[in-house]
Amino acid sequence: MSPTAQRPDALHPGAGGRATARPTLEEVAALAGVGRGTVSRVINGSPRVSAKAREAVQAAIAELGYVPNRAARTLVTSRTDSIALVVPEAETRLFSEPYFSDIISGVSAELAETDMQLLLILVRNQRERDRLSAYLTAQRVDGVLVVSVHRDDPLPGLLESLEIPSVLAGRRGDLEPLSYVHADNAGGARMAVRHLLRRGCAQVATLTGPLDMEVAQARLGGYRRALEEAGHAYDEELVGLADFTEEGGRIAMRELLSRRPELDGVFCASDVMAAGAMQVLRAAGRRIPDDVAVIGFDDSIVARHTDPPMTSVRQPIEEMGRTMARLLLDEIHERGRARRQVVLATELIVRDSA
């Protein structure tokens, strides 16, 4: 058998159809007029390449018919070309709350022009947590994104110890050592409560998220600060503990009404909870916003489809997903670089509920 028949992938057609050696990375670099490292970064999807250089490399690849040897690259670099997006929540929350779909959309959009494969992993119990731990320890992915960060979740600590490139949506606390992206949660909550007070609400309640999450603590802190700045005492009877779900919003709203029936404003730490609270208020005969004004947080599609349409604090959720993916790609391509923290601005979107 001829050498060509033995190794059909080792040759490529040259001028006049003559078989020549398979094009190399160095040949692509020479034709593009760039260094070998720049070609490698373009092939690996690194964002740290100028548009001009990227176009030159892509044109050279097309002209030469260069095909990266992915198997060899994996052996040399230990890269898997995959990223895990971990959601430590039940699938009911994943599919019922727009926050998660918007994060996934942003991450996917940022990875669309790279060779990275996105793996969605739900962690709902200890067995799945143990399985994920073994998967990550075996270095089956190049990096990890974590959404819905709880204070006592062991996953971020595992990622630290394994030194896997990682980015969190949120943080465990002020001293979070991992890279993270989140919205200005305290500032957004403060903005919402100040709006309720300015429109004349005298008894402003709040529905919190799970208080083992820094995001929920921050929004509760913003609520408290706005009250104190306006000369209103913080009253724990006006705080309804909930869990970011619609049913949790309904339960907490019923309890608030039973304790403080005179309340005339409610800041909810998510749109989904606010939708549940509005159902309870209507069932109790309270007009929105005439008797009770309601504000949510997220400005998700839920806010635009309640009756009346919901005033909400907008956080740029898709941009959070995009930013998380960008930070993670940087950490993958430049191992050992300093961790980064990004805080995105929030905005109050006023609609009929307040």
TrEMBL record:
**Domain (HTH lacI-type) ranges:** 23-77
Q: Does the keyword DNA-binding apply?
A: yes
Alphabetized CDD domains for the sequence:
HTH_LacI, PBP1_LacI_sugar_binding-like
* Pfam families linked: LacI, Peripla_BP_3
Q: Which Gene3D superfamilies match?
A: 3.40.50.2300, lambda repressor-like DNA-binding domains
Sorted alphabetically, which PANTHER family does this protein's record hold? HTH-TYPE TRANSCRIPTIONAL REGULATOR GALS, LACI-RELATED TRANSCRIPTIONAL REPRESSOR
Q: What is this protein called?
A: Putative regulatory protein
